[in-house]
Structure to design on (964 residues):
């Protein structure tokens, strides 16, 4: 069977795939639709307005929560992505790959509520242990180490995002040919220089995607953060607390919609960027391959 | 200096061991502690397990496993052909970008995504409205929300992208020329799938299926928002136990979930060698 | 190093980079703000806490609180609640006794609250209401809202106003009824119905014996098996959505849910008066031990003075339908025609009348989040869920 012989089957398969994507996107579109309704979610009457986008930045609660979310997302990315690069390099050279794979990928398979509960109890116990240690040594310096708060939420998010970042980096690294590092080393470059000057530029798209991935995951994570966060609120915990107590405010829909615009732009940007890059690389390769005209 | 650099590679692994593997293992220890009024104290009692296995919680757990299994099968049927299609028919350079399309639904928080299914599925929702309008049905369908069916629909829509991702990774293990050989030999689509694609992609399919299965049992939001009166899964049993300050019970549920997961992964590994999931990356 | 300081410092350090990303300015609060752990419905006057702050003359650092009693107690007793919050609200139903017995909340000096003299007389006359704000005879709470929970009903479709819980278990509403996914209110309301209709012997619907719990749960399991309930709702938005979308016609729920559902759908959704009785409750504010240690008592009393002023009472009643805890609301409304037009006045009068009718029913029972046999409540509730 050949694509050109049967273009309809090809088109049909494309259509099916796009239909699935569109179906999965319905809730996202729905949120955007609601965010322009003056009467909010579930109202019988729809009145178009852009008002909610105007007031969202004046919403102190929302902005404060967004601040925490952004802080968490930045810190998580700063830890997760270097961890993912280190782990991917380690994995490629490891002789016994299974334990490494197991440790790095298992977080994907542990359901959020179970993982959150286990870590919650773990941190509480650690906190008791460190407080006891502090009492024995007559110091209060350990008291806050594992008290629920920014740090514990951060640890939870790093563990949650590592598998995703790891896979993305590993896949891009898979296309890198080790011989290039060897060549650089034999020319006298240190292993760091060889990595930074030769390998890193080639895996950069993977690192960029894993950064984007991590930020998006942090923005939308709820269960683990809510169990581990302690005394502050993030964007999603505000949403849920609104859902439970007063109903999600119209600003929340506007904010969610805005987050999705930004995220779609981000993903779109990455797609375009890799597109342009591969196009350029392809052209360069072709140009180099062609004999110079006399 | 060099030793220091080599030590850096161990940092992520040590981090994961201390803050991830250790807490998971310790759930088994905490699950046998004695419950106190607000916390728990060291001891040995199987009360939490007895409470789990002899109460209605066990049936809740088994029912959620069954629903989760159905979701896995539906996801495979709907999602895996997409992975095959992308790998087989789309030019190499564009493949990853096409897969990125399936990340787009994650742009909105899961909780909003699940809640937004209600205006779609409810009595006067989008589906019923459309079907009534087209004259396909004369009475609104009420069995697609607040029922196990509703939970399964929610699970499929939440987890379908993951079967596309893992299926795509799995398909990277299938060299492109294999398809050409199949076509040259005139193998039917069914035979190509059964004898060639599935065996080669098995580790990836298995990993994706386990992912969906355990999340179906573990994500508390799904039964909570889409299930019928009192629909419960393991995740919800654990969170409800935490809310009721019954930490040993929560830890017992976690330990049971984690054992189930490890058993599944062990079986999978014996059958397919799961390191093959990332095979193309190893090259 | 204090957790709050630690995280705030970290936050400040990040604020610069974060501002560039998200386009927002500084978020750090003034150092002396009262750290208040409560629910969103505790505020009136504005979408945020600014109106409350202006009335009290203090600044408030609001922390959203989820609606579960056990979680809150756990956070205060074994968690870090005392270092995080200066004041908190309860979840009703005996929580203050648990907190006061553990020494995590402070006895109050009501002489510091000028509006204390406005408080509803029931709080000073002994009996159940008076008990709710006291622990061992000492005042530890300031009430801010209360209610008697009832049945919301879509009169536009039903055609008449229902006056008995019987409807919730009636064939007529099979598959169009909902109750709350929480053993507390659901078991209490069902118990009130079974007790008052003489279907089951129940001594105290607020604190049942294991056998009574079993009887109530078996009744619910039977109802559930025959498909009576569409679902059990969880949380405000969920409850509103069910009623507003007409997925259910009757629902045992909170009054604000009925108020918002009626507004959203434009339908005649009413909050009935049940002849058997209702679960009654109040919500209160407490000063934490940590709050007093940090010198926040004065700010706390200033805020409590607002909660006991008709300014607050009139607004919470008009907006969400909660019962004010002070006298003089009608006089306040009459004196402020600019804030309350005739339509709003009519709504307020109607709600107050209906509230009085509900409160007067003799079968009412107080909410109790810590019944003596709580384990039986929990285990039987798991069976209802599994049925």
């Amino acid at each position: 069977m050949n694509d050109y012989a049967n273009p309809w089957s090809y088109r049909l398969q494309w259509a099916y795939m796009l239909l699935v994507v569109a179906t999965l996107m319905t809730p996202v579109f729905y949120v955007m639709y609601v965010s322009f309704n003056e009467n909010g979610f579930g109202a019988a009457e729809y009145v178009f307005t852009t008002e909610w986008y105007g007031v969202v930045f004046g919403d102190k609660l929302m902005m404060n929560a967004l601040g925490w979310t952004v802080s968490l997302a930045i810190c998580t990315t700063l830890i997760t992505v270097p961890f993912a690069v280190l782990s991917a390099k380690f994995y490629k050279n490891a002789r016994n790959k299974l334990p490494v794979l197991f440790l790095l990928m298992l977080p994907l398979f542990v359901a959020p509520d179970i993982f959150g509960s286990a870590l919650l109890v773990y941190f509480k116990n650690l906190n008791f242990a460190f407080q006891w240690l502090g009492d024995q040594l007559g110091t209060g310096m350990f008291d806050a180490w594992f008290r629920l708060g920014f740090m514990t939420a951060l640890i939870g998010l790093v563990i949650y995002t590592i598998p995703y970042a790891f896979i993305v980096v590993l896949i891009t690294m898979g296309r890198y040919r080790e011989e290039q590092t060897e060549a650089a080393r034999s020319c006298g470059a240190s292993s760091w220089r060889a990595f930074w000057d030769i390998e890193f530029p080639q895996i950069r798209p993977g690192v960029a995607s894993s950064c984007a991935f991590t930020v998006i995951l942090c923005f939308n994570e709820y269960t683990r953060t809510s169990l581990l966060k302690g005394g502050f609120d993030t964007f999603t915990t505000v949403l849920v607390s609104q859902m439970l107590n007063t109903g999600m405010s119209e600003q929340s829909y506007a904010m969610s919609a805005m987050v999705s615009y930004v995220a779609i732009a981000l993903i779109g940007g990455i797609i375009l960027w890799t597109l342009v890059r591969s196009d350029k690389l392809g052209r360069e390769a072709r140009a180099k391959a062609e004999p110079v005209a006399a | 200096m060099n030793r220091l650099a080599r030590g850096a590679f161990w940092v992520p692994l040590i981090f994961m061991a201390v803050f991830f593997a250790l807490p998971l293992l310790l759930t088994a220890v905490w699950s046998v502690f004695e419950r106190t009024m607000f916390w728990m104290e060291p001891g040995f009692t199987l009360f939490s397990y007895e409470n789990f296995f002899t109460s209605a919680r066990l049936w809740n757990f088994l029912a959620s496993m069954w629903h989760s299994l159905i979701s896995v099968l539906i996801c495979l049927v709907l999602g895996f052909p997409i992975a095959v299609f992308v790998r087989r028919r789309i030019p190499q350079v564009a493949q990853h970008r096409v897969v990125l399309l399936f990340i787009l639904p994650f742009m909105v928080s899961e909780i909003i995504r699940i809640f937004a299914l209600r205006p779609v599925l409810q009595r006067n929702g989008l589906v019923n409205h459309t079907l009534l309008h087209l004259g396909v049905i004369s009475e609104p369908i009420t069995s697609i929300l607040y029922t196990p069916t509703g939970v399964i629909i929610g699970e499929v829509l939440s987890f379908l992208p993951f079967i596309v991702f893992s299926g795509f990774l799995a398909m990277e293990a299938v060299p492109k020329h294999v398809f050409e050989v199949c076509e040259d030999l005139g193998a039917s689509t069914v035979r190509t799938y059964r004898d060639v694609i599935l065996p080669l992609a098995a580790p990836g399919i298995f990993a994706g299926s386990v992912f969906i299965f355990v999340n179906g049992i573990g994500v508390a939001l799904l039964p909570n928002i889409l299930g019928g009166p009192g629909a419960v899964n393991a995740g919800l049993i654990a969170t409800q136990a935490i809310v009721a300050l019954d930490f040993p019970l929560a830890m017992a549920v976690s330990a049971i979930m984690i054992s189930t997961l490890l058993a599944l992964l062990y079986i999978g590994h014996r059958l397919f060698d799961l390191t093959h999931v990332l095979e193309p990356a190893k090259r | 190093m204090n957790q709050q300081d630690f995280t705030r410092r970290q936050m400040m350090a990040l604020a610069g980079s974060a501002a560039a990303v998200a386009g927002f300015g500084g978020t750090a609060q003034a150092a002396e703000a009262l750290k208040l752990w409560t629910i969103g419905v505790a505020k009136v006057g504005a979408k945020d806490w600014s109106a409350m702050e202006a009335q009290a003359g203090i600044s408030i650092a609001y922390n959203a609180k989820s609606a579960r009693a056990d979680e809150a107690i756990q956070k205060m007793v074994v968690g870090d609640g005392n270092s995080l919050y200066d004041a908190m609200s309860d979840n009703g139903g005996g929580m203050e006794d648990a907190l006061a017995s553990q020494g995590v909340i402070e006895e109050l000096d009501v002489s510091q609250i000028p509006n204390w003299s406005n408080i509803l007389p029931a709080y000073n006359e002994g009996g159940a209401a008076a008990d709710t704000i006291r622990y061992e005879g000492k005042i530890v709470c300031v009430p801010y809202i209360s209610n008697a929970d009832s049945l919301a009903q879509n009169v536009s479709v039903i055609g008449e106003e229902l006056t008995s819980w019987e409807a919730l278990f009636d064939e007529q509403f099979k598959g169009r009824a909902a109750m709350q996914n929480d053993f507390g209110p659901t078991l209490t309301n069902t118990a009130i119905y079974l007790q008052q209709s003489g279907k089951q012997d129940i001594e105290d619907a607020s604190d049942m014996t294991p056998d009574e719990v079993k009887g109530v749960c078996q009744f619910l399991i039977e109802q559930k098996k025959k498909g009576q309930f569409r679902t059990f709702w969880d949380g405000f938005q969920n409850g509103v959505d069910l009623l507003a979308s007409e997925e259910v016609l009757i629902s045992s729920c909170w009054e604000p849910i009925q108020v918002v559902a009626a507004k959203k759908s434009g339908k005649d959704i009413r909050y009935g008066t049940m002849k058997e009785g209702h679960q009654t409750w109040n919500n209160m504010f407490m000063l934490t031990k940590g709050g007093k240690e940090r010198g926040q008592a004065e700010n706390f009393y200033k805020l409590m003075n607002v909660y006991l002023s008709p300014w607050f009472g009139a607004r919470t009643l008009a907006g969400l339908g909660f019962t004010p805890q002070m006298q003089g609301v009608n006089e306040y409304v009459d004196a402020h025609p600019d804030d309350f037009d005739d339509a709003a006045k009519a709504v307020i009068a109607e709600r107050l009348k209906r509230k009085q009718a509900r409160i007067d029913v003799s079968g009412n029972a107080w909410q109790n989040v810590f019944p003596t046999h709580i384990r039986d409540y929990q285990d039987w509730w798991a069976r209802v869920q599994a049925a």
